[in-house]
Amino acid sequence: MNDIAATATPPSEAERPAARRRAWFGKALHRLALLLPGIAILVFWQWASGRLIKEIYVSKPTAVAERLYELFSSGEIYPHLWTTGQELVLGYVFGVSAGILAGYALGRSPRLASIFEPYVMAFYGIPKIALAPLFIIWFGIGIWSKIALAGIMVFFLVFYNVYSGVRSVDRELVNLTLVMGASQRQLTYHVYLPAAAPYVLLGMRMAVPYSVIGVIVGEFTSSTQGLGLFIHEASSTYDPAGVFAGIVILLAFVVVANILAGKLERRILRWKTPIAHAPSDI
After folding, report:
1. What's the pLDDT tens digit per position in 119-155?
2. Between 157 and which of 90, 198, 207, 243 could a Cys-Cys bridge form, CB atoms 3.0 to 4.6 Å apart?
3. Model pTM?
4. What would the CATH number be for the domain defined by 83-268?
């Protein structure tokens, strides 16, 4: 009886350069496909500014690039970058840490969940942006009010993902592990954490833009420094190039953070594809 499955053979020495060229060409095409929509938008924006829409409203990509060069060459933007960067990192770290701890605690304890879940849901329903003035009253106009606002927005995304991940663990697997003599510490490290890891990492990744929203809204409300204040001042002085320059810098923050989070996710979850879904709105 003949085998119906063909055995794959590695490429020979002569075929390897061609295979590498094909792989490189495929990657180049993929990157080009990613860049084309953005290039098309920039070209249309450059052409339409001054023709379809007054330049005072939308500026131009070339004017935004010139403004970015001025900001970085003069050093004007660095104090704002430093302040916003501190607020983003601290708010994100505090929100993620609190979300993981609270989500795990309530996920492991049905009794605690039955007591606190209604309160968490009620607080989750409050628009977090409405808390900005209150946080400024409590923590002042410095960085801590922005850290608190970013942290509370990150907290709920991470909390619900961790809570869902822990609650999704098969109860029969937990009981079997306990019967085999596992301690609570072993149960945490070998059952619950691996099961919740995709949910945790997805929540962390999706929380990045929400931390930016929290910080910028806080800086819009009241601040002495930061990118939000810079954008607000540029808007109030009718400087659209400055507004778009600030938005581009914020976009760079989000893109870099998402790339790093994606690499971390792929490295940790080589064995599993994330399946969790974070809340759509906050």
Report:
1. 888 887 787 778 888 888 888 888 898 999 999 989 9
2. 207
3. 0.78
4. 1.10.3720.10
